[in-house]
Each structure stands twice: as structure tokens, then as C-alpha cells.
Specification:
- This protein is α+β, with helices and mostly antiparallel strands.
- It has 14 helices and 13 strands.
- Helices cover 39% and strands 18% of the residues.
- Strands 9-10-11-12-13 form a five-stranded mixed sheet, with helices on one face. A three-stranded mixed sheet has the order 1-7-8.
């Protein structure tokens, strides 16, 4: 029997699965942080720090007791998290590393084939030289390996070192040991991630099965395309074949979109909705989300569920921007209610609010503005500035 899921229930399910329904003031701690990242799947990394870097803001928006030093310890000391690629650079639980080995193998084949056509046979020998140097000398940054410094000659004189390091990282021989001023420091995987996370192997069928199950657990319901896109480890065809092969474990659900149009067919685990576990109402407070928040990762899904159209306009020429360079979505309860353009001025010690836009039908009530002010005060403290500065015309 096909199950019809109302739009509000669908939003509630997704917010619970993505860690945005839990109390944001409950003490998290380092173990809780690791569990949070495991539960949501990954946290995207991005270099832009208009207010705070994406991974910090993603975690803070879920729990205001989040501490940056806990993330650093889990990544750089404990090896319980590692940095690699999903749809983009992300922080991932090291318990998932065994599944990323399949990505490494696929990536190696595609890169070598492409680069051999570009540079000719023997090009990959340079990677072996780079690897041998790191084995002997330890962790490096790309600036440590510049043309002319490589005593054996050849490759370092005709191609940037960054290429070799990125190849070895993308293919699983190197890991990111830490970042210095956001620049990657590369070292051998076995020096960065504990062996109990790296030594085992899984067959291809088990790999696809894990990818699809893990994605569905974190989405609550999904199409086969959404399953494939979640970790970006398997193809849509592989996800579709998995759905077909496991139909006896799945139930079809119809998800009502925010615009009231025809419900969209998706899949959930058999026993839905009991398989979702306990669902809680999201906090009523208003929260600022990172533009790279996992809730927004799949723009089409987010727009269907929340009726919220959002694009990052960093690469849009300024005269053509609808909103601004780096505009933050606003989540209130189970609704995306607006967006805000702001920037931390650390020299002045202020969080400068440039402009606010409420979504159509969202009223500017005194209570809503009070919730916004409270959230901006929290963001300012987290960003390390002293006060919120509302610029002229900020309310439009």
C-alpha cells in the first residue's frame, strides 16, 4: 500500500534526520559531536568565512554548545573523522572510510586515463616520487614541494606539485592530517587514520548496499536519484538497481510538495513511519543556516519540501544578483522563512547586518524580530565579535 505523507510531516521527518529538531542548547561534548556528524552523514568544508567557515556554522546551527576544538581533536588527534569528497570537500566519520576505498579506485582509474592522454605515458611515475618523499620526510603542504627542489629532476620542473598531492589524496594514499590557515597538510593515510578504520575491505555489492541504506536512513524517504546524490559514491543506475533488488524491504511513499502540486513518489524502509524512530518538533527559535548546510544540499529536494528557492550568488556578477554575495537562509521551526546578508567585521568587532528578506507571506512581527535578534547575538558571540551592527536600510 502506498502511503501519503503530508508536506509538514515530510519537513518534520527531514529536519529530524538532519539534526535540526534536537534541542540546540543540550550539552554536546566531543563524543556527542562525533555522533552528530555520523547521524547526518557528513559536514561540508568551505573556505569562505564571511561570518564563520561552513563546517563550524553547520554544527553550531544544530547545537550552540559546539566547540571547535572538539572537531579539531577528532580530525587531527583521534583520527575519528577524515576529510574527503562527497559532492564536495567534506568531513566524514572514519567508520565510513572503508566505503570510500571504492571511490578511490574509481577515481584513480579515471584520473590516470585522462592525464595519460594529456601528458603521455610515464606521467604517473611522478606520483610515486611524491609518495616516496612523504614516506621518508613526513607531512607536507603543496608549498613545500616546489619546482626545482626535487633532486631527481624531471617531473617537479614541468608540473605543479599540487597535482601529485591531490591525486594521491583523491586516490586514498594520502589523507589530510590538518589544515594551516585552511591550507591542506598531507600525510600517509596510515599516519592519520587509525588502522581499524582502514584495513578492512567490502565487496562491491556490500558497498552499494551500504551507500543506499545509509543515505535512506539519513533522508527518511528518497527517490533513487536522491539516494545516489547523498554521498555521491554510487551512480543513479546503481541506486535504481538497489531499489529494484530490495523492493521487499521498501515501501512506496507519496510526498506532498510545498506548492500543493502532485505528490512525488519516493521510497522508505518497510514499516514506515515506525522505522523513523521518535520524531520531535523542531525548536521554535529562529536559526541562521550556512549556505552549505546539508538541509540545502539537494536544492530540488529542499525547494519541493520547503517551497524555498535558494542559490549561492558568489559567482553571479554583482549587478545580476537577486540578493547578495553570500546570503544565509533563516530556519524558524519547520519553515524556511527568509534570508539575511551579513558579515563579521573582526577588526571593528561587529556582525554587520546588511539586508534582510522575509519570504512571501511571512509577517514581520515583534516576536519574530526578537527571535532574529537573539539568534544574531548568538552568532556574533560564536564568530568572536562583540555586537550586532544593523546597517542603514537593513530591513529593506
Amino acid at each position: 500500500m502506498t502511503i501519503l505523507v503530508s508536506n509538514r510531516d515530510a519537513r518534520l521527518i527531514f529536519l529530524n534526520k538532519q539534526g535540526l529538531a534536537a534541542p540546540p542548547h543540550r550539552a554536546l561534548g566531543k563524543d556527542g559531536l562525533l555522533q552528530l556528524i555520523h547521524d547526518i552523514g557528513f559536514v561540508q568544508v568551505d573556505s569562505i568565512s564571511t561570518v564563520e567557515r561552513a563546517h563550524h556554522q553547520i554544527l553550531f546551527s544544530r547545537n550552540q554548545t559546539y566547540r571547535r576544538e572538539h572537531l579539531t581533536e577528532l580530525l587531527e588527534k583521534d583520527g575519528e573523522l577524515f576529510e574527503h569528497w562527497t559532492h564536495d570537500a567534506s568531513i566524514i566519520p572514519s567508520t565510513f572510510f572503508v566505503y570510500w576505498k571504492h571511490r578511490f579506485r574509481r577515481k584513480k582509474a579515471s584520473i590516470l586515463d585522462r592525464w595519460r592522454k594529456w601528458q603521455g605515458e610515464g606521467f604517473d611515475q611522478a606520483f610515486e616520487e611524491t609518495y616516496a618523499r612523504i614516506v621518508a620526510d613526513g607531512a607536507v603542504m603543496s608549498r613545500d614541494l616546489k619546482a626545482g627542489e626535487h633532486k631527481s629532476g624531471g617531473w617537479w620542473n614541468w608540473h605543479p606539485s599540487k597535482t601529485a598531492l591531490e591525486f594521491l589524496w583523491h586516490t586514498g594514499k594520502l589523507a589530510i592530517a590538518r589544515r594551516e590557515n585552511f591550507q591542506k597538510v598531507y600525510d600517509l593515510v596510515e599516519r592519520v587514520i587509525p588502522p581499524h578504520h582502514t584495513e578492512s575491505e567490502v565487496e562491491h555489492e556490500a558497498f552499494v548496499d551500504w551507500c543506499c541504506r545509509a543515505a535512506l536512513e539519513r533522508l527518511g524517504f528518497a527517490t533513487h536519484g536522491e539516494l545516489a546524490a547523498f554521498f555521491d559514491l554510487v551512480s543513479p543506475d546503481e541506486a535504481k538497481a538497489w531499489v529494484t533488488a530490495h523492493r521487499d524491504e521498501l515501501v512506496e511513499v507519496l510526498i506532498e510538495p510545498a506548492n500543493g502540486e502532485k505528490p512525488r513518489s519516493s521510497y522508505a524502509f518497510l514499516g514506515f513511519p515506525d522505522t523513523l524512530g521518535a520524531l520531535t518538533e523542531p525548536p521554535a527559535r529562529l536559526r541562521v543556516l550556512s549556505p552549505f548546510d546539508p538541509l540545502l544540499r539537494n536544492r530540488d529536494r529542499m525547494e519541493r519540501l520547503f517551497g524555498f528557492y535558494y542559490r549561492i550568488e558568489i559567482f553571479v556578477p554583482e549587478p545580476k544578483r537577486e540578493y547578495g554575495y553570500y546570503v544565509f537562509p533563516l530556519l524558524e521551526g519547520d519553515r524556511l522563512v527568509g534570508r539575511i546578508d551579513m558579515k563579521a567585521d573582526r577588526k571593528a568587532g561587529t556582525l554587520d547586518v546588511k539586508r534582510l528578506w522575509w519570504e512571501k507571506g511571512v509577517r514581520t512581527t515583534s516576536g519574530r524580530l526578537e527571535r532574529l535578534e537573539a539568534e544574531l547575538a548568538r552568532i556574533a558571540r560564536f564568530a568572536g565579535v562583540e555586537r550586532v551592527n544593523y546597517l542603514e536600510g537593513w530591513q529593506g
